[in-house]
Specification:
The complex is a heterodimer of chains A (397) and B (478).
Chain A (H helix, E strand, L loop, with lengths): L1 E3 L10 H6 L7 H17 L7 E8 L5 H17 L3 E2 L7 E9 L3 E10 L2 E10 L14 E9 L5 E5 L2 E5 L3 E8 L2 E9 L13 E5 L2 E6 L2 E6 L4 E6 L4 E2 L7 E4 L6 E6 L10 E9 L2 E8 L3 E6 L7 E4 L5 E5 L6 E6 L5 E8 L2 E4 L4 E2 L3 E7 L6 E6 L5 E8 L4
Parallel strand pairs in A: 2-3, 2-4
Antiparallel strand pairs in A: 1-7, 4-5, 5-6, 7-30, 8-9, 9-10, 10-11, 12-13, 13-14, 14-15, 16-17, 17-18, 19-20, 20-21, 21-22, 23-24, 24-25, 25-26, 25-27, 28-29, 29-30
Helix pairs in contact in A: 2-3
Chain B lengths: L1 H16 L14 E6 L15 H11 L4 E3 L5 E3 L2 E6 L5 E6 L12 H11 L4 E6 L2 E5 L7 H4 L9 E3 L1 E3 L4 E7 L3 E6 L12 E6 L3 H10 L4 E4 L14 E5 L4 E7 L17 H10 L2 H8 L4 E3 L6 H4 L11 H11 L5 E6 L3 H16 L4 E6 L5 H5 L5 E6 L6 H11 L4 H9 L3 H12 L4 E7 L2 E5 L2 E2 L2 E2 L5 E2 L4 E2 L4
Parallel strand pairs in B: 1-12, 1-13, 17-18, 17-19
Antiparallel strand pairs in B: 2-3, 4-5, 5-7, 6-7, 8-9, 10-11, 11-12, 13-21, 14-21, 15-19, 15-20, 16-20, 22-25, 23-24
Helix pairs in contact in B: 6-9, 12-13
Classes of the chains: A mainly beta (397), B alpha+beta (478).
Chain lengths: 397, 478
């Protein structure tokens, strides 16, 4: 797991601790040096290899010329350091043809050792070391505050002071801050009778150290300390916003809200939806529902009929509160790219107020974070890796 | 202020309206996905021979499940097995099974799983060691057993008259060679699939294919690389998925040795002529010109992109050597080369091989036949050699080579050498030995192609051309 703080998170004292927990990533060059040393070790460990060798190289890989030279010098240096004499073919007792090749996943280095009329292969596979891409800093207002990466699916998370909780399909993992590293201390299992639906959605809430987990057809309650979690079949409504404005029923066997609202709007139905942004701006109460028919419906003050309908948005929206503009922005996923954008509703129009914030994968969840006005979400990359992130909206100068 | 706000509104409309589709939308439940397959599938049993095993396996893998799976990154993943472990010799393996049900409602327990695996490989000793645990004992170490078990032929099937699986779809209508209707299995352990059903139609003519693709309501169409021309220009609302060059087009001599008595009407071909034929082939021209770069020259059985070592088996044309070998061989009678008459690509390649061979004075006579792809069909062929197109069934090199060995009916010691291989060096050595006598001559690796329209989402084509339809969904449904 890799954890990384992208920007200073002023309201959390954990910034430096978390940053200290970042795993140092090996540079591409040092990985090639290590691989070269291991490769030669495998070649020379074979009994009967003579002391005079002719070595030739061929490149079939996408290694840069600089990296090829580096690998060659490591290999030749290591051979000489091991007491081998690298000579011309006519005076060598054995010939080593080294091919720097690659497959779809990484580099493949092949040594064909020819000696006494026979030949022997040594093949070494080396993972491609990715050059860390610099994260694109939002140019306008969306700021990524926090990032947590893991290989297994995440549905939601809560950063609660010195505790970090991650909702996974089968458990809630509790991490505590241990000298700058997040250390998993508890894994609270989630029991459920029926198989989870595809594109599983879930919501994790922690208030006063009490845990509530919403999953399709299931609700779990428990505590952070002492850690415990009990689950039961339930169709209780899920909270849609950070406050008490809205809640709605989630389909027990699907990936969307049924459209039946609860709480203050109990008994009212809207078309079924994937996600919603709910906020109150002055006297105007506003709802934006990302319908699972692909339409985004805006309701203002009344839920009887939409004030406006927008097409071609993504499926995820959440409301963020800030000191900028009208004070409320809708964070919306794109319908075509893996990105988020801040949008303000001006009268009945949707006006983008930030540039797109590119993400590492498809948005799987987007929720308001709590009273701080921020939003947080989960993405899944094309390679099946998950990222949990938190965002805030800051004003342009 | 008012003007600038208006301008911003206009810009916003453009930004939002420019978004053409719901590519990043959440998946939607419902609908029927309609798929056209190129060839006719007459049986969905993975243990039966098929004229088009790749298409058969694609459909079968939606109905029947394996213990393990290889994902798009080549990683071995749990499927019906949740975990596994082996002894230090890698000969005795224990697999723990997840709680799942067959389509007839009965639980997937160790007994039917053991019976199914015994059918797939009688050499294995498969024992139910618990209600949800089996042990597989192999005659020799098999370090890559979990990867082998991801092959469709090791699907867990209850064979009680009808074949019963436990996969995400049930077979609700089956008209061999014409139509298969698969319906979402509501109790699937991995969650009910998004579509209500998938309908496969098979064996339509090229003309019908074109009509359906342009005017019909089909969501996905399996294509040959010969059908790509004209489609590759960017067209809105459709996607063309082209795999890496994966299928192996290979020339197989049917009676290589004098001591093979099974084909009395045919004389074995002189090994020098076989080598000369291999040297005469212009694989680069076949890949770049005939196949319009949707293929790659094949020197080995497994493609370079999968292993990184195919370059060890050079497949370059060497006419000087071909002519010398041909001269050394003396008198040569015409070689009859059979190919799949239903596949225009194979006909073109066979004809090109004949042209190249003629340059080195080796007479090759192409012969179209409809049953070259099955072992039984080949046994009845009156030909010296056959041109085969064999699917790359796995992204794991060991499993892929084991599968090719089965397709090529290689000797049991070769099969065991593949299965015993723990390292790339060993696998490369098996390939080298297999190709050494030129009984098997790799020609090209060929891409697989599928066309999907804009309403289809998450149709994942793996690098080897297999389909991962686990997260498939379609628009236009509610």
């Amino acid at each position: 797991m890799l954890m990384r703080i992208i920007r200073p998170f002023s309201c959390l004292p954990l910034v430096l601790l978390v940053l200290a927990g970042t795993h140092a990533q090996e540079s591409p060059q040092s990985a090639l040096v290590d691989a070269g040393n291991d490769f030669i070790q495998e070649i020379i460990s074979h009994n009967g290899l003579p002391g005079t060798l002719a070595v030739s190289f061929d490149n079939l890989s996408s290694l840069s010329t600089t990296d090829q030279q580096l690998v060659k010098s490591v290999i030749l240096g290591r051979l000489r350091g091991s007491g081998m004499h690298v000579v011309k073919a006519e005076s060598a007792a054995a010939e080593v043809l080294i091919t720097l090749s690659e497959d779809w996943q990484g580099y493949v280095w092949v040594a064909n050792v020819k000696q006494n009329g026979g030949s022997r292969l040594v093949i070494k596979r080396i993972a491609r070391v990715q050059k860390t891409a610099a994260l694109r800093t939002p140019t306008v207002t969306l700021q990524k505050l926090f990032s947590w990466n893991q290989d297994s699916p995440m549905l939601d998370f809560v950063l609660d002071g010195q505790t970090f909780l991650v909702l996974e399909p089968e458990q809630v993992v509790v991490y505590v801050n241990n000298s700058g590293h997040w250390k998993a201390t508890e894994m609270l299992g989630i029991s459920h009778e029926l198989a989870w639906p595809r594109d599983l959605q879930g919501r994790l809430q922690v208030r006063s150290r009490q845990i509530t987990v919403f999953l399709p057809g299931t609700q779990c309650t428990g505590a952070v300390s002492p850690a415990q979690l009990q689950c039961r079949a339930s169709d209780d409504p899920w909270q849609l916003d950070a406050g008490p404005l809205a809640s709605a029923f989630f389909s027990p066997a699907r990936n969307f809200f049924t459209g039946v609202l609860a709480g203050q709007n109990a008994g009212i139905s809207v078309p079924s939806f994937f996600s919603a942004a709910v906020w109150q701006s002055g006297d105007t109460k506003q709802w934006l529902f990302a319908g699972n028919d692909g339409r985004m419906r805006l309701y203002q003050n009344s839920l009887s009929s939409p004030a406006a309908t927008f097409n071609d948005w993504g499926s995820d929206v959440a409301a963020a509160h800030s000191s900028c503009g009208s004070g409320w922005q809708v964070i919306a996923s794109s319908g075509t790219t893996n990105s988020l954008q801040a949008i303000e509703i001006v009268n009945r129009d949707a006006v983008p107020v930030s540039s797109a914030l590119e993400l590492s994968g498809t948005v799987r969840a987007l929720w308001p974070s709590g009273s701080n006005g921020q939003v947080h979400g989960i993405t899944e990359s094309a390679t099946g890796k998950y990222e949990a992130f938190a965002l805030s909206v800051s004003c342009n100068q | 202020m008012r003007r600038s706000l208006l301008a911003l509104v206009v810009i916003s409309s453009l930004v939002l309206a420019a978004v053409p589709s719901l590519a990043s939308s959440r998946p939607r439940y419902g609908g029927t996905v309609r798929v056209l397959l190129r060839h006719k599938i007459t049986s969905l049993d993975p243990l039966q021979e098929s004229d088009d095993p790749a298409s058969r396996d694609r459909v079968a893998s939606l109905i029947y499940e394996t213990l393990t799976a290889i994902d798009a990154q080549g990683r071995t993943r749990p499927r019906l097995a949740t975990s596994w472990q082996a002894d230090s010799a890698r000969r005795v393996w224990q697999f723990n099974l997840r709680a799942a049900n067959f389509h007839d409602g009965s639980p997937v327990t160790a007994a039917p799983v053991a019976a199914s695996l015994k059918s797939a490989n009688p050499e294995w000793k498969v024992i139910a060691t618990g209600k949800q645990q089996i042990t597989i004992e192999t005659p020799y170490p098999v370090p890559h057993l979990p990867e082998l078990l991801a092959l469709v032929r090791f699907s867990i099937i209850k064979r009680s008259g009808a074949l019963v699986g436990s996969g995400p779809y049930t077979l609700t209508d089956w008209q061999p060679g014409e139509r298969a209707l698969l319906t979402a299995y509501e109790d699937y352990w991995g969650g009910r699939p998004f579509p209500d059903s998938i309908e496969f139609r098979m064996g339509l003519s090229l003309r019908e294919h074109l009509m359906e693709r342009n005017l019909g309501s089909d969501h996905a169409v399996e294509l040959g690389v010969d059908q790509l021309r004209g489609l590759e220009q960017a067209q809105t609302n459709q996607t063309l998925l082209v795999s890496r060059p994966a299928d192996l087009v290979v020339l197989l001599f049917l009676q290589p040795n004098a001591d093979v008595a099974a084909r009395p009407t045919r004389k074995p071909i002189d090994p020098r002529v076989r080598e000369a034929l291999a040297n005469s082939m212009n694989r680069a021209a076949i890949s770049n010109v005939l196949l319009q770069k949707k293929g790659a020259p094949a020197g080995g059985l497994l493609p370079q992109w999968l292993t990184g070592y195919e370059f060890l088996f050079p497949g370059k044309q060497d006419m000087d050597r071909a002519r010398k070998l041909r001269t050394d061989a003396g008198n040569v009678t015409a070689i009859t080369l059979a190919y799949d008459a239903s596949d225009p690509v194979m006909k073109t390649i066979a004809e090109r091989i004949a042209v190249d061979a003629r340059e080195s004075s080796i007479p090759v006579q192409p012969l179209g036949d409809l049953h070259v792809n099955t072992k039984s069909g080949r046994a009845a062929l009156n030909a010296d050699a056959v041109l085969l197109r064999l699917p790359l069934r796995s992204l794991d090199p060991t499993a892929a080579l084991a599968s090719l060995a089965d397709d090529l009916a290689l000797a049991s010691d070769t099969v065991s050498a593949i299965q015993r291989s723990a390292r790339s060096e060993e696998l490369a050595e098996v390939e080298r030995k297999t190709l050494a006598d030129y009984r098997i001559i790799p020609v090209v690796h060929l891409s697989q192609v599928v066309w999907t329209n804009g309403n289809v989402h998450n149709w994942q084509q793996l690098p080897n051309g297999n389909w991962d339809l686990d997260q498939l969904w379609v628009e236009g449904t509610k």
